[in-house]
Write a structure and sequence with these properties.
Layout: H1 2-28, H2 42-45, H3 54-79, H4 84-105, H5 121-146, H6 153-181, H7 188-194, H8 202-222, H9 230-242
Helix pairs in contact: 1-3, 1-8, 3-4, 4-5, 5-6, 6-8
């Protein structure tokens, strides 16, 4: 088990380099000024916006997705003793999010032409990947809360913080953007007040979500117990039945 955690820790280091490292280099060589607070990650993957180095960002994301796959099994092994169904959902949606993320790297970000009958296929894949990962993280939070007597208490608080705060933020941001597009009279002052704020822009929430997923994986490695014995599980079941 110690060997497995050390291997996953090495994967975390590689994920940090492959994602944040390659995207930082790609952003530094971006033809225009790339400000992560206002520009989406897809700009780095676009041959139109980043013609010379889009392949670097795409390669880094693909490698990141491949390195994340071992964490699916790690999450399932630790969560299934608490709630087998929720553990399967968490692992399944996490895997779906990773696969969808990898697929998004092979679809050129564009809006003019349809791909497989979908005009914005890259955006659809990117949003689907974010949605799948969010569901997997939410299920993990629920398992951590239910099994709080078996897991470190910090695990639930770290997972819930990095999962719920970005989700709440992007929900309000997208809701305000939708209301502004409807041109409701009471929403115009809100749009005027927030249009220059980082909280208004999807790019800020994309990067925030990327950091949240990485912290979630770090907590999954360093805050989960090395092994949960059957006696602990039986004791947990008895406590649950008494409750």
């Amino acid at each position: 088990m110690l060997y497995r955690k050390s291997t996953l820790a090495a994967f975390l280091a590689l994920i940090f380099v492959s994602f944040f490292g390659t995207l930082t280099v790609s952003a530094w060589m971006f033809p225009q000024n790339y400000d992560w607070r206002y520009r989406v990650i897809s700009n780095l993957l676009s041959p139109r916006d980043n013609p010379n180095h889009y392949w670097l960002a795409a390669s880094g994301l693909v490698l990141t997705g491949l390195l994340m796959l071992p964490f699916v099994g790690h999450l399932h092994r630790h969560l299934e003793v608490i709630a087998p169904r929720a553990a399967r959902i968490s692992a399944g949606t996490f895997a779906a999010g990773i696969v969808t993320l990898i697929c998004a790297c092979f679809v050129v970000p564009q809006h003019m032409h349809e791909v497989l009958g979908v005009r914005r296929l890259h955006e659809l894949l990117g949003r689907s990947a974010a949605g799948f990962l969010a569901i997997g993280m939410l299920c993990g939070c629920w398992c951590a809360w239910k099994g709080r007597t078996l897991f470190a208490p910090r695990l639930f608080w770290v997972w819930s913080s990095v999962t719920l705060l970005p989700l709440v933020g992007i929900f309000f941001s997208e809701s305000l953007l939708l209301l502004a597009r409807l041109k409701l009279s009471w929403a115009i002052p809100i749009r005027t007040a927030l249009r220059h704020s980082v909280f208004w822009h999807l790019g800020f929430w994309e990067w925030t979500g990327a950091v949240a997923v990485f912290v979630f994986l770090c907590a999954a490695v360093f805050l989960t117990p090395p092994r949960i014995s059957l006696s602990h599980v039986d004791s947990f079941d008895r406590d649950e039945n008494k409750g």
